Amino acid sequence: MVDFDNLNYLSGFGNEFATSDPRVPDALPEGQNNPQQCPHGLYSEQLSGTAFTAPRHSNKRSWLYRIRPSVIHHPFEKFEQNAWTNDFGKFSPNPNQWRWNPHPIPDKGTDFVEGLYTLCGGGDVISRSGLAIHMYACNKNMDHRAFYNADGDFLIVPQEGELEVTTEFGRILVGIQEICVIPQGIRFSIDIRGPSRGYILEVYGVHFQLPDLGPIGANGLANPRDFETPVAWFEERDEPFEIISKYQGVFFKAKQNHSPFDVVGWHGNYAPYKYDLRKFMVINAVAFDHADPSIFTVLTAQSTRPGVAIADFVIFPPRWGVAENTFRPPYYHRNCMSEFMGLIVGNYEAKEGGFKPGGASLHSMMTPHGPDFACFEANTKGELKPQKVAHGTMSFMFESSLSMVITDWALKENVDWNYHKDWQPLKKHFVMPK
Ligand SMILES: O=C(O)Cc1cc(O)ccc1O
Ligand SMILES: [Fe+2]
Question: Domain Homogentisate 1,2-dioxygenase N-terminal, which positions (predicted)?
Answer without folding.
Answer: 8-277
